[in-house]
## 1
Amino acid sequence: MGNVLFAFALTMFAGLSTGIGSLLAFFTKKSNTKFLAISLGFSAGVMIYVSMIEIFAKAQHSLVDTLGQGKGAWVTVIAFFGGMLLIGVIDKLVPSSENPHELHSVEELNEAHPEAGHHAEQIERRKEAQKNKKLLRMGMFTALAIAIHNFPEGLATFIAALHEPQIAIPIAAAIAVHNIPEGVAVSVPIYYATGSKKKAFMYSFLSGLAEPVGALAGYLILMPFMSETLMGVVFAMVAGIMVFISLDELLPSAREYGEHHLSIYGLVGGMVVMAVSLLLFM
């Protein structure tokens, strides 16, 4: 029983470090769009690097071990692009008027509200509302992707802690370091969209909760059925989802809310942080 409690506590620590990231995101004023551009670029860099370098590689390693070199490699690639297809289909199912990726012209706003054509302030307010809605959706999608990612991570950490506690501690520390910038990825767009630090922290906190929930679900339900093959497929799909979100949502929004170079500097910075964290906990 002691091992179970230790494993769960370790997983809880790793998952809830997303809350640290959301708190770090609050050391700025809401009007600081340069910070927003850098943060979104940074978040994209984190998600792209960890997906392509770590998660995809782990998925391929698991699938090659169980299915063989050729078949395992093919299943990894198919699952990776399957994750992209899944999030792309979800995006397309959202009505265009509500879709955060569909940009709308001033003419469209005027057609919906003719009186706005004569009032610049009303137009600006509607444009600001559209931007906020886009950011809110982006934060929600990012929280969902991170939650999906954290679920199997929590299971993996929990299993490692049960069997090899000394190995699980550096694994949990590495995941915790990874989850801090992931917390930024969730909280920044939600905070800028709503102006509420409480909501931003709550959603970031909840996305991290998926890690201990994954551990608990694994212990109670999934352990008898979970296989190395299924875990590999899930990881590959999550990698695809995170790369799609980064390219389709985070980077375009970073460029929209700040200078192009700031978003690229943030992107590179995010990759550097992830690369160093991976090297520190090899």
## 2
Amino acid sequence: MKEIIRERLGDAMIKAILFDLDGTLLNRDESVQLFIANQYDRFSHYLDHIPKEQYIHRFIHLDNHGYVWKDQVYKQLVSEFSIEKLQSEDFLQDYIENFHDYAVPYNHLISVLDNLKTQGLLLGIITNGFGQFQMSNIEALGISDYFHTILVSEWEGIKKPDPAIFHSAVNKLQVTPSECVYIGDHPINDIKAAQEVGMRTIWKKNSNYFHFKDSFSINELVEIPPMVKEFSR
């Protein structure tokens, strides 16, 4: 592995690590499962004509790994299941206000961030989504203080894979793209987009997407610190 990394990257020094949020730091699939099961329980007197597992399964399908905003998801659920006395806006507001209470980190998240900080690296997040919603999730994970910059697409007015959001991050960190490693789970929005602005990349493998061969890859966050050390050597 060491020889392969040196051959592909040369001698450039790494100064910053940028992360995606959902599917990379936040275990969104598990978080959604916990939230939607609890939402069903809390609203069960409006939903008792729907089997719980059917409600959960349908939400997850419509959600499409977070790429369909929840206003559309809940409108569809209310229509399909003939839910009365509650509107889609009621479910959506509950989602916005309470999802962060079910935020689940991936294993070793805090220890990995501690390790990277100890290496003297600048840390950042680039995530698509709504500003305060994503910040609430970051704060719920207890990691906001680790990051020198956090860019959320709503607040930036641009979203991945637009290269402008990646350039904005490196400008805020006062580094160059070649001095950055970007880590994310989406082959196009994260990996290909970061590569096209000149960043090195690590793909956090995700069974929802095809295998991405043109990037270093990991299964677990704990694999990141030793890989980054090799990048810098």
## 3
Amino acid sequence: MAVITCIDDFKPLYRRRVPKMFYDYAESGSWSEQTFRENSDDFAKLYLRQRVAVDMSGRSTAGTMIGQPVTMPVALAPVGLLGMQHADGEIAAAKAAEDFGVPFTLSTMSINSIEDVAAATAKPFWFQLYTMKDEGFLAELIQRAKDAGCSALVITLDLQIVGQRHRDLKNGLSAPPKLTPATMLNLLTKWRWGMGMLGAKRRHLGNIVGHVKDAGDPSQMMAWIGRQFDPTLDWARVARIRQMWDGPVILKGILDPEDARMALEVGADAIVVSNHGGRQLDGALSSIRALQPILDAVGGETEVHIDGGIRSGQDVLKAVAMGAKGAYIGRAFTYALGAMGGPGVTRALEIIRNELDVSMALCGQRDIRAVGRECLLVPEGFPGRWADYSPSRSG
């Protein structure tokens, strides 16, 4: 049995146990994957400032995100098709997050439905919403999240058009998998995964199948989804959707200071600096490099969270020290879920909290809520020094 001491230790086991199409879905980006790589690589360009002869006793990683208590400033990001990574994956991850004391965010494109996860958990979770053309289904989805007691709505703004993800296209990614000869051959080698799927509660997109008349079987479902992402989404529609939700609203997919200011205008309780894990616009800035200009733009008027490239507690510490109120992990817990199920997610959270706690202490910090830029050595020009640009020229 492998000894798991860091997030990367999950990956070999994850790759052995999960079908290639779902491994590639998690471990890839769009086009050349530049942004996917730089999301992680740019964290390594930030250095931590070691301090000594400082009282390190009584440390705490606890805090709040959108006013909700958390054992560390980390949330599980929305990950589509999580129930294809492991049988009933959304339920397993949600229960692990609940027990650990961090938020779990259920994707619209989940295998287990809103109701499935609500029935399996005792505390509220967050729900991530894709804006779709079908207004009736959108309103129904929001109402279902309300009925399930979800404590925040996370609206994803950067998927009006799907980025070209070469590996997903080559693998014929779908739920359930498309049974090409190559897929069938690969699935035959994943017997443990297959046995788990035989006993899974669902194997289709639970928030959609059974709720949309034109998505009654897998082929209809995928065709319906392909027609639903809304290229006409604008800030006026975001504002209307925000009015449909009574609680906190988090807007995810912000990379530009102008968009951050617009998010303030529509009443966002938090924004997530995110490039969709490098799966949308390849060549966009990494999330950690985009963070500071966005913090400057909002001036503390709303919480700023971040996702993209976070694989360790040190990454969490760097994000918080740069000014983020919270950090989202997606791939880090997906590797663990695919490798070991719910216990793997718990172990991933333990690893991240331990790395955060130890690194915080060695930087002379005892409370994550007090951590600031003094913990870091930031390269000059890290957020970017670009040629002069005026938005008025773009039209």
